[in-house]
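Researcher: Going back to the complex we discussed earlier. I've cleaned up the inputs and rechecked each line, so this should be the final set. Can you rerun the prediction on the complete assembly and write out the structure?
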Amino acid sequence: MATRNKIQPSLMIALPKGRMASQTLDLLIAAGIPTPNGDVGRKLVIEAAGENGSETKNLRYILAKPSDVPTYVEYGAADVGVCGLDTLRESGRNVYEPLLLPFGRCHLSLCAPAERPNTPLRYESMPRVATKYPALTADFFRRRGVNAEIIALHGSVELGPLVGLADLIVDLVETGGTLRANGLVEIRTIMESQAVLIVNRAAYRLKAAVIDSLIARLRRVI
Amino acid sequence: MMMIEERTPNARYAPIPRGVADYFWHEAYRRRELEASLLDLFRRWGYGDVIPPTFEYADVLNARASEKLRSEMYRFLDRDGSTLALRPDMTIPVARLVSTRLHDWPMPQRFCYAGSVFRYTQPQAGREREFRQAGVELIGAAGPEADAEVLALTCAGLEQTGLENFRLVIGQMGYFHGLLDDLQLTPDQQQALLDAVDRNSEAELAEFLRATPLRTQQRRTVEELLSLRGAEIDAVIAQADRLCLNYAMHSALENLRAICASLDAYGVCDYVHLDLTEIYNLGYYTGITFEALTPELGFSVAGGGRYDNLLGAFGESHPAVGVALGVDRILLALDEQRGTSPPRRPRLPDLAVMTRRSAQCMALVQTWRQAGLRVEVTLGAEDGQEAWQAIRARGMQALLVWDDGRFRLYTESSDNNSPALLSMEETQTYMGGLLSNKE
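Model: Rerun complete. Updated structure for the full complex:
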């Protein structure tokens, strides 16, 4: 039987716009993986030509909105992506997540005005919760048998309690500075988050050689 | 190419539900064609047709369905108050049919089908809520040759569609089940392990190992679990063999080894990729599970496996193995692979004929149709010129107008103010040309 065509080992990598993109690029450079040269600018798809013969040649990068990275990867529009665990779990996308990356550490917390009495959440009848993470928030309350009213916002969630929009908020906390400035305190940690390398389920098998090599190189510099 | 003016429909608001689609023109034709060619292939492998009902009692469909499949079923009430469900796959209805009505017919029994199944999922490209499957069930055969036959037939089916570069990723549920039996985990621990393996997450696996007390041997197996995959079949099996903890794991590997040996005889080993970490399909599968992947799509174009306990849920128990090919997904992958998509216009007949109600002409039309040409008879127009304008507006290439024992031929390339007059003999030559063009 004739050998079948080998699958082109060209790899599409989705990076989240913002700080995590540059942190990922630094890590890729440290691992000796070809990255786009110079200013990425406004171009959305960038080629990075690697040395011939290496397994990680023909890399292409796209810059995507962070919350879209899991979508790109699940659909196979990108083979590999980098995003936060928080974004990934919120998206509910079905991808492989073989490697945690050493940046983007933060936690997703339930926060309340500092003056809220410290009573168990399950005593609440229907708290109003403002968040950018409606799926994770709903799940958190459902597990406690509480039917929360989730108010999905796209930014400045910590304003919610100040203006009477919400009783509680669920948001990412890195240092806690923003919270303190708005008179809020963390009352529960919903999840710990950090950056994670995600891989499309089909690509993980069909481009196993090049993806395994990428993961191995990254692991050496983490 | 003619231009079609975009008009707002002068219709009432009449939407269709999410997750279903109207297929028409080429999109409808290619679905029917693909299903017909797959059914034809299945029949040539000795499979006989089956048409299960579109809906049945929900309890029956529920019997061995996974939690996920259950939550995705469309349920509704019958007039008498019993709960019905639309079939979420073809396997459960066929298993129910064979175990309750054909259980004493000599085994093995081979069935093939094509049709719609229904699942309540988030609609995406290639994941509608109503989607079409073509597949086979091979019932009453427990040996590895049966698994190999279904796997080889899957390859033959995908090859026939013109799909290139696909891979068949094969797992063995028995291996993982055997491991779980050995580990004796609490439900929470088991969920943590399943999540870690399902996500292929090293970090979560490490966390599981840290939090769960295990014997040394067990620990070593779990540690290496995620590496049990690859196209080097012998190497993967050899590694998995060293990690066996009990007889169940061992016999799962023996089974896999025998199946791969049979696949070798079919000459399809190049397509095979083993993956013992593939546990996504926890449900009624008991032995091998597999899915076919292509580089063009991020999800599988076919999937199946062995389900030895499913028939027993309805009546007499028989081992069985089957596969379902995703018709819509295969077409999507073919479009991606070729970089084209079908034209957004009707499939046009080869030519139109204006018969002027002549019996002689009508008889000719019938012979052409029988020969395989698609011939449309014009309606309404009495004048050749007028009929030609109407035909052209629809993008068709040729019109024959009956003229007392002869035909006037209108085509794009001829002078249509004085169309060529063809004798009967010239007409047949012209039709011969059309026919050979088709082939």
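Model: Worth noting: The first helix of chain A runs from residue 19 to 30.
Researcher: Good, that matches what I expected from the previous run.
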